[in-house]
Amino acid sequence: METLIEVYFKDNHKTKEVMLDWFNQPFDLEYVDMSFTYCTRDRSVKYNRERFIKYLDEELSYNGTSSITLTSKDGMINSVRRERDYFDCNINLKVSEPNEVANRIAEFFDQHDGVIGFMCASNDYIWQNERDLDTYNWQGRPTEGLIIIDNPLFKGEKMVSLESLPGYAHYVNGLWLGSCWKMWFGEEMFKFIPKTRFNSVDAKWALKTLSNHAIEITLHENMMDFDKPDNRKRQWEFRKQVGVDAVAEWLEDMKSTGDPAVEIRTIQGGEGRAITNYYNDEKQNVPKSQATTAVYYEINSAGDVTKEEIKKI
Question: Going by DSSP bridges, is the β-strand pair 45-46/66-72 parallel, antiparallel, or unpaired?
């Protein structure tokens, strides 16, 4: 089964160490080609270990968005992308034991103070983020049950509403935000999503605390059972209870309607965050006008909740 894995880290003095560790992971791949944004101008050249190390050093000397890609003999892609303050390590990988691979990724994430990461079936990720109806028709994939909307860019055309799919991914300021089979969250994310939101009393997912204050979320036992109704429901519940979409929209600075589902401001000289989440009676994160409860948190620079208040609206 083909699997997509993405893990994100802060771009700092440890960047080379993390990248080398990632490319040295035992993925059982025989690399044949490599490409670099600056050193090869994104053109593929024959893979050579010594040249790879040399190019890596040179690539990291440049500022700005860049990518490093290794291609294996059987066509698997392993790459690292730098964007803004973060970089992500991502790979499409054929695996027979997803849980074993996930355990290695969790250890890697925890060891290097990861920000956020996820693992899911590649095919599910593709279709949860495909809006083009022509692609559905070309692949012979049914569209029954999908919400179809007008394409805002091309008059008269229709498209799939990605916001109506539980696995839709946001990419904000170089970071992924979404909901899928296996996810990892580090302290950096707790500045925006209080850790208590992940282990609420109504949570129906498995939560594991890693050694370095990061957490692992597993929505359902078998990665390939993503399309079962109960698992899709749980995928939606995670999005709504944790407030994935509200946080993504705030980070994108899209909240211009005056009716936010989450309000975030800095405190403690910019080191901490004050966060107000708005929820309805079903404990779903909703716009303020639809909410019955407001949950207020104060979070310090380490991501710890120092104050929490719950008020009925």
Answer: unpaired
